[in-house]
Amino acid sequence: MLKSANCSASGAVKLEYVGLKPLESPWNVLCVRPRSIKNAPQKLAIAACDKRDSVPIKIGLSDEECEAAVVAGNIPEAPPIPPKPAAPAGTPVVPSLPLSRRPRRNRRSQALRAAFQETSLSPANLVYPLFIHEGEEDTPIGAMPGCYRLGWRHGLVEEVAKARDVGVNSIVLFPKVPDALKSASGDEAYNENGLVPRTIRLLKDKYPDLVIYTDVALDPYSSDGHDGIVREDGVIMNDETVHQLCKQAVSQARAGADVVSPSDMMDGRVGAIRAALDAEGFQNVSIMSYTAKYASSFYGPFREALDSNPRFGDKKTYQMNPANYREALVESHEDESEGADILLVKPGLPYLDIIRLLRDNSPLPIAAYQVSGEYSMIKAGGVLKMIDEEKVMMESLLCLRRAGADIILTYFALQAAKTLCGETR
């Protein structure tokens, strides 16, 4: 904004400087040309707008004229050096410590912290686990606030649309199978018109670029609730189970799955599934192996969601011992050699050391599963006002990334993506 500065004999103050001079507020400035510069107008003032995004108006001086003014001693004014902040009363006066390095220097402002941040998190890093069932209504899951068994034709499609709107374009499907379709051998797992293949076809028809991960395991389809076929003495049969898993993976790939994810922890299943997929022409379908899946107590809410608790015993003979660290390397080396494309660690936060172990010893992408128990604890803490749910959620995901996870399977995917996109709580 241009303003006149009256320099006549009417008593106005004579301005003999060049540059920016504060007026009523720090955002208003006055600029004039000194009379010593030939042909300079005797009155010219500029006031900067209060809005920071406005463009200041130039006063029209050439570079030579600006330099000449400075050489002549007409130095433009600038804000004063800010005073050193005072310490609170009673602070001891001590000599500075002789430190050559002070790491806090790189943390002293938000801009510096952002510039030097080593780990980032974006919606593209998130995979959204979704529970589906044959019904049309969305059924709340009591132990997992905010999660539902989604109707595969309606609620699921709507939830996927919400996720895509905030940048989450990868999902993993978990079916709640009717009890009448469960059997000891889990044959429903490879029914090409079963719940999962139908759902994949529906989603791919509506969202062709959606990345669909599937679960390869027998527990949702088994009348025993175990990940494999159970012998009459209670032993989980490895090789016979792998035979069933291969048929399940092929049926999912045929429906349009992008990534099949064996979560059963049977020995040799990755190589067998890779061979089965390739034999059927699905060379481009990826395998995300649950490489280090521990026999964890954090899975409880998930089993409620799918009604898939084991009818007897536990899963300790095929899932890993939580006390073991080096064993994860054995599993990862086997899966990598058999053709896995992604290695997954489950659970997530209690096993950050395992995520880092695999990250440091494999060139393959590493996935982490922030499981139902982790999700439910954060949710419960938030409801009880013991923690700030949103901050703990975001910190937990960032920690999984920092440990080495390239992607994170998390029930917080939609909520976290909204936060990342700047939406309010």
TrEMBL record:
InterPro entries: ALAD (IPR001731), ALAD_AS (IPR030656), Aldolase_TIM (IPR013785)
GO CC annotations on file: chloroplast; cytosol
Pathway the protein takes part in: Porphyrin-containing compound metabolism; protoporphyrin-IX biosynthesis; coproporphyrinogen-III from 5-aminolevulinate: step 1/4
EC number, UniProt record: 4.2.1.24
SMART domains membership: ALAD
Quaternary structure (record): Homooctamer.
Biased composition (Low complexity): 87-100
Source taxonomy: Eukaryota, Viridiplantae, Streptophyta, Embryophyta, Tracheophyta
Top EC class of this enzyme: lyase
Family annotation (PANTHER family): DELTA-AMINOLEVULINIC ACID DEHYDRATASE
Name of the molecule in the record: Delta-aminolevulinic acid dehydratase
Cofactor(s) needed by this chain: Mg(2+)
Record's keyword annotation contains Oxidoreductase: no
Coiled-coil ranges from the UniProt annotation: none
Domain of life: Eukaryota
GO biological processes: chlorophyll biosynthetic process; protoporphyrinogen IX biosynthetic process
Location of the protein in the cell: Plastid, Chloroplast
Pfam families xrefs: ALAD (PF00490)
Function: Catalyzes an early step in the biosynthesis of tetrapyrroles. Binds two molecules of 5-aminolevulinate per subunit, each at a distinct site, and catalyzes their condensation to form porphobilinogen.
UniProt catalytic activity: 2 5-aminolevulinate = porphobilinogen + 2 H2O + H(+)
Main location: plastid
